Amino acid sequence: LDRLSVFTPVLIIFAIVFTLSAIKNIYDTSAHAMSLGSNAIATLENYIDNTTSELAELNRHVSNTCSVDDTQRLRQYVFQSPKAKEVSLFDAEGQVYCSSNEGKTHFDVGEAAIKQINQTPTLTTIALSESRSHDKAIFIYSANEDLSGINALLPPNLFLELITPKFEQQYYDYQVNILQHSLEHKTGSENQAYRSYNFKSERYPISLTLHLTPHSYFTNFGQHIWRVISLASAIAVLYQAIRNYKLTRNSLAFSLKEAI
User: Fold this and answer.
1) Which residues have a Cβ under 8 Å from the Cβ of 185 and sit 6 or more positions away?
2) Angle between the 225-259 and 214-223 helix axes, to the nearest 10 degrees?
3) What average pLDDT does this structure show over 106-119?
4) Torsion of CA 178, 182, 186, 189, to 10 degrees
5) Which of 24, 47, 90, 117 has its CA 20 to 30 A from that of 238?
6) In this model, does residue 217 exceed pLDDT 60?
7) 66 phi and psi, to 5 degrees?
8) Dist. CA 5–CA 179, nearest whole Å
9) What is the C-alpha separation between 65 and 247, in angstroms, rounded?
10) Contacts for 74-79 with beta carbons within 8 Å, 24 or more apart?
11) How far is CA 158 from CA 44, 131, 213, 236, in A?
């Protein structure tokens, strides 16, 4: 009976703390998802900014003749880049005339890409299209005022690895779009999203949707379980200290009363 009187309040304290923490976790998980989504868009924007700056600098050191030196400079950039697999030069008509893989070549950039470049004040953009090998690829463009310029080809997985590992760590389902094209779409077969959050870049045609699943909430709660246990333990210890103090004080007062 004495043990039950000691442990019952402790169990109640832990139950209350865990219940309140679980309720708070719903809001914390949403806040964390919103933070990760915003940071993901910023990460992609920064990467595109840095890449277009590098491409613009490279473009200033090549000619429009696709000489051997020009090809070598393009290949050197690809060799030193951790993500770019090909770099190409295109003219004002949107025709690629030089690439790091082939040297002199001739193929169309595409009207959609040229239109998108023309609509941006920085003359830089990103597009999702098929490469010449018919694989899905990401193209980052940096153009001059006459709309000639340079682009870099990236495999989608190398681009997405900038952001998706954190989503997968939190068990978020997600969808990444470039313009209206889906770049990546990951959904769990057994999970149903409780909440969804949309994010969109203000400078590039990139959008992101995060879906929170039950696994997302459990994962976030598990990552902070030590705080819950610490708080519950601290309250339980404080409660026991106060209880013991009162018992001791009452026992002493009773003893003195009996002695008198």
Assistant:
1) 174, 175, 176
2) 50
3) 83
4) 150
5) 24
6) yes
7) 55, 55
8) 64
9) 94
10) 74/98, 74/99, 74/100, 75/100
11) 12, 15, 25, 50
**Cα(238)–Cα(10) distance, integer angstroms:** 10
Residue appearing with tokens 């020009």: 70
- For residue 79, pLDDT over 80 is answered with yes
What local confidence, expressed as pLDDT, does residue 240 receive?
A: 81
pLDDT band at 189 (very low <50, low <70, confident <90, very high): very low
Which pairs from 55-61 meet CB under 8 Å and 24+ separation? 55/87, 55/140, 55/142, 55/149, 55/150, 55/151, 55/152, 56/142, 56/150, 58/87, 58/150, 59/89, 59/142, 59/144, 59/149, 59/150
Q: What is the pLDDT at residue 78? A: 94
* 33-37 average pLDDT score: 96
Retrieve residue 54's tokens: 């590098």
Question: Phi/psi zone of residue 103: left (φ > 0), alpha (ψ -120 to 50 degrees), beta?
Answer: left
Q: Report the C-alpha gap between 163 and 160 in whole angstroms.
A: 6
The pair of three-digit structure tokens given for residue 66, joined into one six-digit string: 């696709």
Provide the token pair at 52. Answer: 């277009």
**Rounded CA separation 28/13 (Å):** 22
Residue 153 CA, chain-centre distance (Å), reads 21
Query: Residue 222: what are its φ and ψ, rounded to 5°?
Result: -65, -30
Are 208 and 198 contacting, i.e. CB atoms less than 8 angstroms apart?
yes
**pLDDT of amino acid 192:** 63
Q: What is the pLDDT of residues 135-164, one digit of tens each?
A: 888 999 999 988 899 999 999 888 899 999
